[in-house]
Amino acid sequence: MTVLRAVQETTRWSDKLLHFGAFTVLAFLLAWAVPTNPKRRSQNVLVATGIGVAYAAIDELTQIPVGRTADWGDFSADLFGILAGIIVYVAMRELIRVTPFRLEP
Fold first, then answer.
1. Rounded distance, CA 82 to CA 76, Å?
2. Neighbours of 103 (CB within 10 A)
3. For residues 48 and 85, what is the distance between their CA atoms, to the nearest angstrom?
4. Is the Cβ–Cβ distance between 74 and 21 less than 8 Å?
5. Which residue from 19, 38, 63, 76 has the highest number of Cβ atoms inside 10 Å of its Cβ?
6. SS3 of 40, please?
7. Could you give the CA distance from residue 30 to residue 45 in angstroms, rounded to a whole number?
8. pLDDT in tens, 78-87
9. Residue 65: helix, strand or coil by DSSP?
């Protein structure tokens, strides 16, 4: 019985890591895909965050009608993944902005 419980705990943690990783990538790609207005650089971050949070909520809520349960832990992992993806995007955008090397068209 102890081995079974250990396997269940490991699966539960890896599930949260999968949620975190998937939403990190999703948020980064969403932020990258939203057009950036140079005067409002934070706008695409807010739009990407909003879309990511809405998707995470819908993802959890649509599990209920098909006999699965919505899980606050999964939703939390999704939110932390969105935060991580946005942080990576902002850091990379800033790095690209301050890098003197530019490709000429």
1. 10
2. 4
3. 10
4. no
5. 19
6. strand
7. 8
8. 999 999 999 9
9. coil
Residue 34: DSSP 8-state: S
Record the pTM: 0.79
Instruction: Please name the residue that has the structure tokens 């599930």.
Output: 15
Instruction: Give residues with Cβ within 8 angstroms of 22, minimum separation 6.
Output: 78, 81
Residue with tokens 């003197």: 100
- Helical ranges in 34-101 per DSSP H: 43-61, 72-98
Residue 47 is encoded by which pair of tokens?
């739009």
Half-sphere exposure of 98 (CA within 13 A, CB side): 5
**Buried-exposed string 16-48: b where 16+ CB fall within 10 A, e elsewhere:** beebbebbbebbbebbeeeeeeeeeeeebbeeb
Q: What tens digit of pLDDT does each residue of 56-85 get? A: 999 999 988 888 888 899 999 999 999 999
